């Protein structure tokens, strides 16, 4: 006699189809950092894009805030296995920041105040996939979450969304960043569980 009827799939997972494999939902916003939290006043903050040809495009906080703002609502997924659904941000699309940047580079190395770096393909920063954000849930982004501004690349594990962002260097070759050098995956797709090198 069958104990489980044909077609039984068990209790549906919280988060359903929006939760990548191996992840669990959180309601809070966990804080994970590899070192001390940089405190960057906005009158000293700047963001720069450096091309592979040595050209620099630079924005002060005032210039950055004058750019068109977007309000992405996205799910985020941390490599430590937590996911948070329906997060609300405000910031500037990388498409806007790249508008006047002439480059044929395929790779980007993101730099943060405090020395953190992470690498991404340029194509993962464009076409509505990434933002520099300065507000979360209607409030100024707290320093522990990367304020005054952080990168937001929600389709990759959250370590790719560098906190305290200060610039992007465009490269012809892929250079691993901080966590990638320590054995994390070069790309970090949560749907393919690309947590560590070799995944």
TrEMBL record:
Pfam families with a match to the protein in the record? Oxidored_molyb
The UniProt annotation puts the region (Disordered) at 1-21
InterPro entries annotated for this entry? OxRdtase_Mopterin-bd_dom (IPR000572), OxRdtase_Mopterin-bd_sf (IPR036374)
Pinpoint the Oxidoreductase molybdopterin-binding domain residues.
35-179
Name the chain's protein.
Sulfite oxidase-like oxidoreductase
Q: Entry's CDD domains?
A: arch_bact_SO_family_Moco
């Amino acid at each position: 006699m069958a104990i489980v009827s044909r077609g039984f799939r068990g209790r549906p997972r919280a988060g359903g189809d929006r939760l990548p494999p191996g992840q669990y939902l959180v309601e809070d916003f966990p804080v994970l950092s590899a070192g001390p939290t940089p405190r960057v006043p906005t009158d000293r903050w700047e963001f720069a894009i450096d091309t592979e040809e040595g050209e620099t495009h630079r924005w002060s906080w005032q210039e950055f805030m004058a750019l068109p703002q977007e309000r992405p609502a996205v799910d985020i997924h941390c490599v430590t296995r937590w996911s948070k659904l329906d997060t609300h941000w405000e910031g500037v699309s990388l498409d806007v920041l790249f508008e006047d940047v002439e480059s044929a580079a395929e790779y980007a190395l993101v730099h943060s105040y405090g020395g953190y770096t992470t690498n991404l393909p340029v194509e993962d920063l464009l076409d509505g996939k990434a933002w520099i954000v300065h507000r979360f849930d209607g409030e100024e982004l707290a320093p522990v979450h990367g304020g005054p501004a952080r990168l937001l690349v929600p389709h990759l594990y959250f370590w790719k969304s560098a906190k305290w962002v200060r610039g992007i260097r465009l490269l012809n070759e892929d250079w691993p960043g901080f966590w990638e050098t320590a054995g994390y995956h070069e790309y970090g797709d949560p749907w393919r569980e690309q947590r560590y090198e070799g995944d």
